[in-house]
Amino acid sequence: xxxxxxxxxRMGGNIARRLMRAGHGCAVFDRxxxxxxxxxAEGARAADGLxxxxxxxxxxxxxxxxxxxGAVTEAALADLAGLLxxxxxxxxxxxxxxxxxxxxxxxxxxxxxxxxDVGTSGGVWGLARGYCLMIGGKEATVRRLDPVWRALxxxxxxxxxxxGRDGSDPRPAAGYVHCxxxxxxHFAKMVHNGIEYGMMQAMAEGLDLLRRAPAPxxxxxxxxxxxxxxxxxxxxxxxxLTAQALAQDPELAGYSGHVGDSGEGRWTVDTAVxxxxxxxxxxxxxxxxxxxxxxxxxxxxALSAMRKGFGGHLETK
Length: 317
Fold this sequence. Notes:
By secondary structure, this protein is an alpha/beta fold. The chain contains 15 helices and eight strands.
């Protein structure tokens, strides 16, 4: 298939690369000419603007927007809405608020353009590992673009089969799921990231407790986490990344411990309050990030190391 990619940052560029490696054609645009040139050198068709990118694609066109949530995404969608035609599809893969996705879908539907909100998880490792995709939108459009999802997703071999799923939709087992109508994809990603906050906080606090263990106990935390990776109930990709960071810097001295949040944790807690759903762990993990900006401890440095590991978020000193 032919697809346009707008936004070639930490994830957008690698999405284009993974698609091209699977045999798909990509037209690419970014405000940074160097990012465009880098992809063009790898076989993408360079565009010097949104109009040129749309012109470079055959109908029905598919454009994937991978930009920061907020005004930048809103402006690009408004510009593209005037360039696309009925039957075209717009994919928004950033971490946008799900209610914004519902509104955007309605606006584009009036022009005959299909909008898909696609929660995309995989961070800076997505090129090698693949991306977990949570998709909201019309089933017919999702089905039409199945070759795109299958190329980007990790595939069935990324995890052992789940017993009892025989006869179920095969797409989730490959790493992508049609969550429902517009808004569902970004809602699922919002909750995913809220859970991520809680998992990271629990791991970070546990490591801090190990580090502060009373005498005569004196743990080498980098060795404990390395052992936990094998056979432990808490084994996970987050633990893998944490063990890697500790192996390189056992004291995590290169991290400030001032932990950022990208918005999804706040939206998760706000949505829980709106719907009367108790999420004490997720709320506490969000507030812990706020607290980290006034003081620092080892747990916060561990959180910073995890964020850098999976997402490339730089919180170094």
